[in-house]
């Protein structure tokens, strides 16, 4: 059995379940000719920012993506610092994937005291760990923050543990957390100096 994270820890959720139709295949499997694979980079960024554990939500080609994780993070998986959650309803869209990730974190929170969770996407190959750290600074159970880049909302998003039940109820279809964030007065954190706010949907 994996050990629970330390009390008061911040968890991470990396959403990597989509089929990537415009990309030509699941984004979790994208490995550039030069550079780090997107799945590995997303996990590494969250770990280096202090998230423990990092819950990786898989869906399309879940077995292949899990194999990539085992190849790159065998020790972290064995220690429970990286955990895999498969969204069985991933085809419903982003909301279903996020529900799966939140459910995994809430199961841990019940025994571990996780106070907040940083949420991001696998298709952000330029996301900086410093952006995650900036949003996690001083985060607690009531925190609700979103990174903004040149005035545009982006990732990561940090959600305090007290918001997780209501956010879960609000998720539907392909809609993510944005309506909940707007309705509950999300704190906008400027990360324009860090870049990395744009997702990549198509090759090249």
UniProtKB/TrEMBL annotation:
<dbReference type="InterPro" id="IPR025877">
    <property type="entry name" value="MobA-like_NTP_Trfase"/>
</dbReference>
<dbReference type="InterPro" id="IPR029044">
    <property type="entry name" value="Nucleotide-diphossugar_trans"/>
</dbReference>
<dbReference type="Pfam" id="PF12804">
    <property type="entry name" value="NTP_transf_3"/>
</dbReference>
<feature type="domain" description="MobA-like NTP transferase">
    <location>
        <begin position="12"/>
        <end position="184"/>
    </location>
</feature>
<dbReference type="GO" id="GO:0016779">
    <property type="term" value="F:nucleotidyltransferase activity"/>
</dbReference>
<protein>
    <submittedName>
        <fullName>Nucleotidyltransferase family protein</fullName>
    </submittedName>
</protein>
């Amino acid at each position: 059995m994996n050990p629970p994270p330390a009390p008061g820890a911040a968890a991470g959720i990396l959403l990597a379940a989509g089929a990537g139709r415009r990309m030509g295949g699941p984004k979790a499997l994208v490995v550039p000719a030069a550079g780090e694979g997107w799945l590995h980079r997303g996990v590494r960024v969250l770990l280096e920012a202090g998230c423990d554990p990092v819950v990786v939500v898989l869906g399309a080609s879940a077995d292949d993506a899990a194999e990539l994780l085992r190849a790159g993070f065998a020790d972290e998986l064995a220690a429970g610092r990286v955990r895999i959650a498969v969204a069985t309803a991933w085809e419903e869209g982003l909301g279903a994937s996020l529900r799966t990730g939140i459910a995994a974190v809430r199961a841990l929170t019940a025994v571990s005291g996780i106070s907040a969770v940083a949420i991001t996407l696998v298709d952000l190959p330029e996301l900086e760990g410093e952006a995650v750290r900036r949003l996690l600074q001083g985060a607690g159970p009531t925190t609700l923050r979103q990174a903004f880049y040149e005035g545009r909302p982006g990732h990561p998003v940090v959600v305090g543990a007290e918001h997780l039940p209501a956010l879960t109820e609000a998720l539907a279809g392909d809609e993510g957390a944005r309506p909940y964030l707007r309705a509950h007065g999300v704190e906008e954190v400027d990360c324009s100096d860090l870049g990395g706010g744009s997702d990549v949907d198509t090759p090249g």
